[in-house]
Amino acid sequence: MACGFIRHLLTALHRIPFLSPDFPKILQTVQGKLFRISNYLPNRVEGGIDWMNKLTLKKWAACLSIAALSAGFTLPAQAKQEGYSTSQAAYKPSSNPAPLPVFKSSGKKDKTVGDNVRGPADPSYIMDVKYDSKTHKLTGKMTVTFKNNVKNNLSELYFNLWGKADIFKEKGGSMDVSDIRVNGTKAAFEVKDTALHIQNLSLAKNRKASVSMNFSVAFPEQQDRFGWYGDTVSMGNWFPILSVYDEEGWNVDPYFNAGESFYSLTGKYDVTVTTDRKQVIAATGTEEGKPRINGELATHRYKAENVRDFAMEMNPTYKILSSKVNGVKVNVYYDDKYSKYAASLLESGIDSIELFSEKFGKYPWPELDVVSMEGWFGGMEYPQLVMISLNERRSQEWVKSVNAHEIGHQWFYGIIGDNEYDEPWLDESFASYAAALYDNSLDELNVPPLPDESYHVSSKVSDFTARGDEGINAYYYTIYDYGSTTLNDLRLEVGDDAFYKAMKAYFNEKKFGITTTKDFIAAMEKSTGQDLSPFFRAHRVFPSDQY
């Protein structure tokens, strides 16, 4: 009712010839205010005014977005759904279509690669790096070994160099590689945008190979998952990572700042980092022994298995609050400025692991690090590590909910991997559902789809970004809000017991692997014994979006 009334009102306003050209900005301001105010409110107010709660205000903001798009207005793009930035530099909107992936195949399938074959398989990274806290630069050497499981005489390899994205260059960020060797022999290579192309190879199928290289990184001065701000340095996507080859070819999609464009296979990491001995480090994996001290420097070593990335966060003022649940050690890293949130982060971390392990499948790693930082977003996920962006205005309930969302990604991205550029709903919609499950607010997952039926839950990131700011707004609404609504509707369709039984079967089937929309639908149908194709079509979930 409310959405319909707003839509009719905006449609009438759109027809007024002398309407101010700034009106869409005014609508965006109102929408943004509603979202930001909601971030500081609890989910519900017991005994209080019904509309003064987070969920109701978010609904009104969503209604405003739907109504505006339906009436013909295009709102400037909002920042990432988990936090909605107040910084204009948080997301760099553009009316131009996103760039085409570099080195991407022509769209023809590689029929020599079977269905669900992805490689190179079993990547194992060994890195030895040094980070200078004064210059915010890192130098090091990396060797990655892998098995060529994809095709005979593999003639090329690709790595993603996310630190070379244009948005980081503006703030002093960079990433460079040199002295690349394949099986000990110096190799020819070229770098274009964020893709490293190693050429003129001949790697036998089902044989192991190794690539070594030197690399250097300059971290940009910005509040981001990759960058430094104040005493904190965030090291997400900071090293050259092996690209995935599948039936679509090499996946070297462009960097997507408003969300994720990451796609990698699980493997092993052995990372040695030397830096200022005062630095307190949170990292993927488990630290091996105590750091080696050499004057003002300390050398730390971390190992991790069955992870698809490796991230770190450093701050010399961090304190650590820890506890255990189900044999998993949860560490909260915080500084004095945000000490009031430490208990909430630990509580929600413990409760999320316990709840999601019960509903989806057991958390498989020995540790989880929850790190406080200051970013333009709400939170960011990496294997065994989540970044939670704090400021003094955050409510405790908001902090818990965002933490639950990011920890939900440990299951949906970390354990069950996906191509985040081609099928973003497979992790973001699922993590949003997980957060609502934690918040005990599944009944609030009932938003309608956008009027424009070309926006699918299963759409690629490029389908949204090609439509500028309207597409970015549609991305957040469709992937986060309507995607999680779709999952809740599925639960209601098949029943709680059948839904969570199917989710556990899906978890066991895809654990440490890669899933697709087709795989998820098949897993749900197999477990429930139902034909769910009408349900998914009605909710705009189409496996054909990927072909």
CATH class of the domain at 99-255: Mainly Beta
CATH structural fold name of the domain at 99-255: Immunoglobulin-like
**Biggest sheet, open or closed, and with what strands and sense?**
9 strands, mixed
**Number of DSSP E strands:** 24
Shape: globular
- Please tell me the overall pLDDT: 87
Q: Cα-atom Rg, whole angstroms?
A: 23 Å
Contiguous low-pLDDT stretches (5 residues minimum) are 35-53, 78-108
Which structural class do you get from the secondary structure elements?
Answer: alpha+beta
Distance between the termini: 37 Å
Tally of DSSP helical segments: 12
Q: Which percent range describes the beta-strand content? A: 25-35%
